[in-house]
UniProtKB/TrEMBL annotation:
Keyword Transmembrane recorded: yes
Taxonomy, superkingdom: Bacteria
Transmembrane segments: 44-63, 75-94, 121-149, 161-183, 190-207, 237-257
UniProt keyword Membrane present: yes
Protein name: ABC transporter permease
Lineage: Bacteria, Bacillati, Actinomycetota, Actinomycetes, Micromonosporales
Record key words, sorted: Membrane, Transmembrane, Transmembrane helix
């Protein structure tokens, strides 16, 4: 029979320490998704993305020819304006920790900063996929209305075009997140993301020696085949990969290094 002795008067009983489990990557991703909606800028940006998608379909119902009121024609035009707004969401997701001075709390709770960064990237990629689904739903609604009012209302959609749409939006939001990681300042990152690739594209058109490299590094050209229903060729995929290495992978790697090294105050 085992007996336990009570602690003597004035003695402090030893505390039992339960091990603290670190939050899973799934939980961190869900937290980052919630942050996108909790901030005023992120919430209104998401609302704007939905409204832009709906407005494009409404304008086509009003002004497009009946023969052009098809599912694919409702779906494809919404990709470009939404693709412009999504990178801004990626930038805000990354830079909000520093602009709102919550980095100290976040990295105190999750000391391994790379896990927070990966969760943020997961969150914005899921948002990009959700934007494609939103475009599909709104395009379907537009097609139903078109068929009811005498438009073509055809439902044909090539599976490759759907895959291209996901690639386009996911890479776009990751490019924005990469600039956010690199610059860690919302206005500077937004201006840099919008200005630098555009400036390179303009120089590629104006300066003759840069026209060749521009075909491989100008994302407005390399990503253009994703909007087409035609199959993307091997050379076009190669140009896409090279341009994304320059405008997405390199800033992402440099930004991650800077984020891991930056002092939090």
């Amino acid at each position: 029979m085992t007996t336990t002795t009570a602690p003597a008067d004035g003695a402090v009983a030893p505390r039992q320490h339960t091990p603290v489990r670190r939050p899973s990557l799934l939980r961190l991703t869900l937290v980052e998704l919630r942050k996108l909606v909790d901030t005023r800028a992120g919430r209104w940006l998401l609302i704007t993305i939905g409204l832009v998608t709906a407005v494009i379909v409404i304008l086509q119902l009003i002004y497009a020819n009946d023969a052009d009121q098809t599912f694919v024609n409702f779906f494809t035009p919404s990709l470009l304006p939404v693709g412009v707004l999504l990178p801004v969401l990626g930038i805000l997701s990354i830079t909000s920790e520093w602009s709102q001075r919550t980095a100290l709390t976040t990295y105190a709770l999750v000391p391994r900063r790379e896990r927070v960064v990966v969760a943020k990237l997961n969150a914005v990629m899921l948002t990009a996929v959700a934007s494609v689904l939103t475009s599909l739903v709104v395009a379907a609604a537009g097609t139903l209305v078109a068929s009811a009012i005498g438009g073509a209302g055809t439902w044909q959609l090539d599976g490759s075009l759907l895959l291209n749409a996901v690639i386009l939006q996911v890479t776009g939001v990751l490019m924005g997140a990469a600039f956010g990681l690199l610059l860690l300042n919302p206005p500077l990152a937004i201006v840099g993301y919008l200005l630098l690739p555009t400036l390179w594209g303009v120089l590629g058109e104006m300066v003759k020696p840069l026209r060749g490299p521009s075909e491989w590094l100008d994302t407005s050209k390399t990503m253009e085949p994703l909007f087409s229903s035609d199959a993307v060729t091997g050379e076009q995929w190669g140009r896409m990969v090279v341009s994304l290495l320059v405008w997405m992978v390199l800033p992402l790697a440099a930004g991650l290094y800077r984020t891991l090294r930056r002092e939090v105050s």
